[in-house]
Amino acid sequence: MSAEAEGARQLHLVDWAIVVCCVLFALGIGVAFLKRASSSVEQFFVSGRSLPWWLAGTSLAATNFSIDTHLNLPSRTSRPGTV
């Protein structure tokens, strides 16, 4: 591997700053909702059964889409005889 290609694989300070900001943002959201979600097991898993049907359905569809798209489909298309 050339020196240029090796240098392109390293993260710079700006990259690390973005990663740290994303992690801190995610942790901040978690801390903000920690008290409400930890009041009971039902509150944690099913949001106190207060979600509208369309929001629960959208969450299910987005979860299914993200799993299929990034894990399953690339393995299917890389097999011989797909086309």
Descriptive notes:
By secondary structure, this protein is an all-alpha fold. It has two domains: 46 residues; 33 residues. It is 75% helix and 0% strand. The chain has four helices and no strands. The longest helix is centred in the first third of the chain and has 25 residues. The chain is flat. It starts with a helix and ends in a 6-residue tail after the last helix. The model has no long low-confidence stretch (mean pLDDT 79).
Quick overview:
This protein has 83 residues and is mainly alpha-helical. It has helices at 3-8, 13-37, 41-46, 53-77.
Defining traits:
mainly alpha; about 75% helix; about 80 residues; about 0% strand; 4 helices
Report on the biggest sheet.
none
Overall pLDDT score: 79
Q: What share of the residues does DSSP label as strand, in percent?
A: under 5%
Instruction: Give the tally of β-strands.
Output: 0
Please state the overall shape, judged from the principal axes of the Cα atoms: flat
How many individual domains?
Answer: 2
Quaternary state, please? single chain
Cα distance spanning the termini: 33 Å
Given as residue ranges, the uncertain stretches (5+ residues, pLDDT < 50) are none
- Helix/strand order, N-terminal first: HHHH
**Percent helix among the residues?**
over 70%
Number of helices: 4
The whole-angstrom Rg is 20 Å
- Given the helix and strand composition, which structural class is it? mainly alpha
